[in-house]
Amino acid sequence: MPVDATKVESPGWWLQRLGKKMLDERQDHQDADGEIIPGLDTLTRYAEGKPPLPHVPGIDPTEVAAWMKDARTNWASLVLDSTTERLGVDGFRFGGTDGAGDSVKADDDANRIWRENHMRADSGLVHYGAISQRRAFVLIERGPDGRPVLTHETPRQVAVEHEQGSRRNLAAGLKLWRDDWTGDTRATLWTPTDIYEFATKSQAPVFAGDAATLRSWDAMALPNNTDGRAPNLLGDVPLVPFVNRRNRRPEGFAEHEDVLSIQNRINLSLINLVAAMRYGAFRQRYAAGLEVDEDPITGKAIQPFQLDIRKLWTTDNPEVRFGEFAATDLAPYVRAVTAAVQDLAAISRTPPHYLIGAVVNVSGDALKAAETGLVAKVKDRQTELGEGWEGVMRLAFRVLGDEEKANAYDLETVWRDPESRTVSELADAAVKKQAAGVPWRQRMEDMGYTPTQIARMEIDRAADALNADVATDAQPTPIPIQRDSRTVIGRADVTDAA
Predict the structure, then answer these.
(1) For residue 384, what is the enclosing H or E element?
(2) Which residue among 8, 155, 254, 485 has the highest number of C-beta atoms inside a 10 angstrom radius?
(3) Helix or strand or coil: residue 350?
(4) How far is CA 230 from CA 9, 189, 223, 311, 368, in A?
């Protein structure tokens, strides 16, 4: 039965609206100023090192395609990886202090949810997805055992819509994917009150945006409902978006999106460099005044000489002159690539030694100064992505029925320190922080220990303190030594014996 899409905010209306939004974003489109906004497909190709081939006048495009295998350098991927590799979540904690006045330790319940969903590994997928695809999503569902299940989702399969006038509250969410077992295309629609399941036999569904009905789609029959509808017991759309650089564009801005033109410039310079190496770097030789024999059958000129390092060109004609053309200077091409790479480093705030790879006689302070821009960028991304992880944990606690933690807004994401520090620097800073009155647990966290390591060290500290108390207990009173002329208890006294 066709799905009705005429009524605003009906299941069919949301399916058509979010489905079209999702598919449209995969392709490039033009904004109001005439600029081309890259789609998700284009962003993915650049991230994977497969940018479009540049046009070089006078060169066969098929030859350019072959050269790109040797000339292509994936700088965009380095921009993405340099940021992602410094984004690491160590745990979660709630605000306030414990009874001893110490900072509250990492929340055990949140860390259990994190670990049982393998988010120590999968959180990297979320971070990389948000940075390379503008945004990523985490889906929170109730598992068969009643525990929350967290799943990484991509914008190629998920689209959401916010409530009117809000950038935080979701009105609906859609997941569209291919069922490999049946070959169908399936869709799940979430609203704060209901969950709808749809299916179609089409492998490439199309959403017109103004159709009154979706004829190829049908509501899936669920175990307890034949109309594909089930109540949403969570009370919220169970999707949390992780939006990257929403200050540049509300729907997100990829980390490498503003250096795509520089990547194109680098590729063009490399192609020109390879072309010069192939056709102009070798010194072409010539012979003037030489009579060339012809093939008696074909009538074509016979090559008089072959280039060979072991052979010398000679002739009996004294009038023949030999010479060679100057080789093409490759230095301008190399300088063009270097200048473009420097522009990429400045705009993306990637340390120069990441891109150039040459570090000679550089002090630690100089390296730290070179990484200042990258560290500041990573800390900014931690603030954006941390809001997403805190929203994930609140929904996970709601799945568990813990409304207190689900409504607690002092939840904090504990991030790994993005700065590069030596062990001696961390230890020296910890000693100074102790003198300033910083609590022990906070000092251990600043030294880079994870919440699990800190918890284990707390147990070890308590055990060490207990063992120290036992060792300092009063020793038992020794037995007194009695001395007389007849009986001696203990060591004999020579004087008394005398």
Answers:
(1) helix 372-400
(2) 254
(3) coil
(4) 17, 10, 10, 85, 55
Instruction: Please give the structure tokens belonging to residue 108.
Output: 């055990």
Measured between its terminal Cα atoms, the distance across the chain in Å is 122
CA-closest candidate to residue 284, choices 328, 330, 325: 325
The DSSP string of 391-419 is HHHHHHHHHHT-HHHHT-TTEEEEEPP-S
Instruction: Name the burial class of residue 1, with classes exposed (0-12), middle (13-18) and buried (19+) by CB atoms within 10 angstroms of its CB.
Output: exposed
Element (H, E) at 279: helix 260-279
Tell me how far CA of residue 136 lies from CA of 73, 93, 151, 168, 170, in angstroms.
Answer: 26, 23, 11, 15, 15
Candidates 380, 355, 278; CA nearest to 70 is: 278
Report residue 152: phi and psi, to 5°: -75, 135
Q: Which residues of the chain have pLDDT under 70?
A: 1-4, 56, 58-59, 63-64, 67-68, 96-106, 209-216, 218-227, 280-282, 307-309, 357-364, 469-498
Grouping H, G, I as helix, E, B as strand and the rest as coil, residue 107 is: coil
Contacts of 174 (CB under 8 A, 6+ apart): 14, 15, 18, 19, 22, 158, 159, 160, 187, 188, 189, 190
Query: Would you state the pLDDT for residue 477?
Result: 56
> Rounded CA gap, 228 and 171, in Å?
19
345 contacts 288 by C-beta, under 8 angstroms? no
The H helix count followed by the E strand count for the chain is 16, 17
**Residues 12, 27: Cα–Cα separation, whole Å:** 24
Count of Cβ atoms closer than 10 Å to residue 209 Cβ: 12
What per-residue confidence (pLDDT) applies to 309? 62
The span from the CA of 373 to the CA of 29, in Å, is 31
pLDDT tens track for 267-287: 888 888 887 777 766 677 777
Residue type at position 304? P
Cβ of 347: how many Cβ atoms within 10 Å?
A: 13
Contact 382, 418 (CB under 8 A): yes
CA 362 to each of CA 325, 326, 351, 368, 426: distance values in angstroms, whole numbers, following the listed order: 42, 39, 13, 10, 21
